[in-house]
Design goal:
By secondary structure, the protein is mainly β. Helix content is 0%, strand content 54%. β4 and β5 form a beta hairpin. The radius of gyration is 11 Å and the shape is globular.
Length: 71
């Protein structure tokens, strides 16, 4: 089952923790966003394999933007 992780707010990408091909489990952090000087982890809700990372450090994401796709 494919899972698309999307931004829930406007934020800057602080860091990308996972890489394409990584196996992840529920609760693992994929990306860390920064908004209003707070770090917000983007976590996995369904175990899988990272098939795409759509952001890089320094990018600005808007609500609904795709951050990563898991298979």
């Amino acid at each position: 089952m494919e899972q698309t992780l999307r931004a829930e707010m406007v934020a800057s990408v602080h860091s990308v923790v996972a890489r394409v091909g990584d196996a992840v489990v529920v609760g693992d952090t994929i990306v860390i966003l920064e908004s209003m000087k707070m770090e917000i982890p983007v976590v996995v809700e369904i175990a899988g394999t990272v098939s795409e990372i759509s952001v890089a450090p320094g990018d600005v994401v808007r609500e609904g933007d795709v951050i990563a796709i898991l298979l």
